[in-house]
Write a structure and sequence with these properties.
Layout: H1 2-8, H2 18-27, E1 39-40, H3 77-91, E2 104-107, H4 110-119, E3 124-128, H5 135-141, E4 147-151, H6 164-173, E5 178-182, H7 194-206, E6 210-214, E7 222-223, E8 226-227, E9 246-251, E10 264-267, H8 270-283, H9 289-295, H10 301-328, E11 332-333, E12 342-346, H11 357-366, E13 369-370, E14 372-373, E15 393-397, H12 402-417
Parallel strand pairs: 1-13, 3-4, 3-5, 5-6, 6-9
Antiparallel strand pairs: 2-10, 7-8, 9-10, 11-12, 12-15, 14-15
Helix pairs in contact: 4-8, 6-7, 10-12
Length: about 425
């Protein structure tokens, strides 16, 4: 026994993060993905079935004989070309500098894409703010020998975003070499766009600060719970795709509603993309050839436009339902939440113990409904904070199909009424 214990002592214990912890806790009470008795308003994936106005879902694809072999580390040329064309069409039609296949690296999922990026960081300071995507904490933790994470203070009145007019000062004051952010933001639903996004990119370029922009919710954009005209991306404001130090991460998981395909991409200068390919050699060995080949059709202009427009129609409607319900229940929801499929809800006005996110989460499980406690988004790589934030917030997802969403909201209403 002692010998076994000593052997196992060679490994670190890894704790669950974010939604994974939420799912594990619910599973102890009988939850499983797709269980009709439960409503998962904590889920981090959109509904994946047939959707009004969207193209038919892909149910079959062929495997070419050559797909059985190892593929290129940065992905197959045909898909990389299709991704570059997709960005040029949406964001760079009038610009001299255009993306090509050489500006694209393909990975099996967004977290793997970010892992590649973190692996090629030098000895640098990387800024971030909270609340943010919990997986960033582990990404930082794996690189603390080279990367110094710097948490930038934010304010509730700014929906916990860094104001554009303060971004340049922050880069200088904290001597940042890079800045990481999700935009649109997981979890607040805040989106930086237009002149504000341009200000971010301009400030970063002037001060030689690299930007890593996680844009996986790029098409979930609304205006007062109505569909916005289109997506957002920092790609629209990059001057030179090969000289501006901006890396954009996106993929099929959210905006194309194929999370199980595990396919994402990174756009950036060609020299960085080459380094990412070299990193892939030691990290993952490159993406799946059959999945890449199947993905090409998803980026065909007519199909992509139809899918993403339908997405905004359906999800803006679900956002309206969710916001109205949560506000009626006594939660405070920002009027600045115009993206993603999450509501960042302030529960401080609810009766005790429901005004604490951990308690709310545990009580909600008794009603077979999942939400995510807000404190899980207060990422702290070095575990140096004296006090964890956001205990009075929950993240509520309107990712599920509408019938399941409404069922979950009714259960939350019953939960709150049981304490009043």
């Amino acid at each position: 026994m002692e010998k076994i214990k000593k052997l196992l002592g060679a490994f670190n214990e890894i704790s669950d993060i974010g939604v994974i912890w939420v799912i594990d806790e619910a599973a102890k009470l009988g939850y499983y993905n797709g269980n009709p008795e439960w409503a998962n308003l904590g889920q981090g994936e959109p509904e994946v079935g047939e959707m009004p106005g969207a193209p038919d879902r892909i149910k079959n694809f062929s495997i070419e004989p050559g797909d059985d072999r190892y593929g290129p580390l940065n992905g197959m040329a045909e898909l990389r070309t299709a991704i570059a064309a997709y960005y040029n069409r949406l964001y760079r039609q009038e610009k001299k500098s255009q993306y090509t296949a050489a500006n694209v690296s393909i990975a099996m999922g967004g977290r793997l894409a970010l892992t590649r990026i973190f692996s090629i960081f030098g000895t640098i300071k990387v800024g971030y703010k909270v609340p943010e995507y919990p997986a960033y904490e582990d990404l930082f933790n794996y690189q603390l020998d080279r990367v110094t994470p710097i948490c930038i203070p934010t304010r509730k009145e700014d929906n916990y975003a860094v104001p554009p007019n303060e971004f340049a000062t922050i880069i200088g004051d904290y001597k940042l070499d890079a800045f990481l952010l999700s935009n649109p933001c997981n979890s607040t639903g805040h989106v930086i766009k237009g002149d504000a996004l341009n200000t971010y990119l301009t400030a970063a370029k002037k001060q030689n600060c690299a930007l890593i922009i996680d844009e996986v919710y790029s098409h979930f954009i609304y205006e007062n719970s109505k569909p916005a005209a289109g997506p957002i991306s920092g790609a629209a404001y990059i001057e030179d795709v090969n000289n501006d130090a901006v890396l954009i991460v996106d993929g099929l998981t959210k905006s194309f509603r194929y999370p199980g395909w595990r396919l994402a991409w990174i756009l950036g200068p060609t020299n960085i993309i080459e380094d990412l390919g070299r990193a892939a050699s030691g990290i993952d060995g490159g993406p799946s050839m059959p999945i890449q080949r199947a993905a090409i059709q998803l980026l065909e202009p007519e199909r992509a436009n139809k899918e993403t427009q339908a997405l905004r129609e359906v999800f803006s409607h679900k956002q309206s339902i969710t916001l109205a319900a949560l506000r009626e229940f006594g939660m405070l929801c920002s009027t600045d939440a115009n993206s993603t499929f999450y509501i960042w809800a302030d529960i401080s006005q609810l009766p005790p113990p429901l005004n604490n996110s951990e308690s709310f989460f545990k009580e909600a499980l008794k009603h077979k409904v999942l939400v995510v406690p807000g404190h899980l988004f207060d990422i702290d790589p070095r575990k140096q904070k004296k006090e964890i934030k956001f205990h009075n917030y929950i993240r509520c997802s309107f990712g599920p199909e509408e019938a399941n969403l409404v069922s979950g909201l009714r259960r939350i209403e019953q939960l709150i009424k049981s304490f009043t």
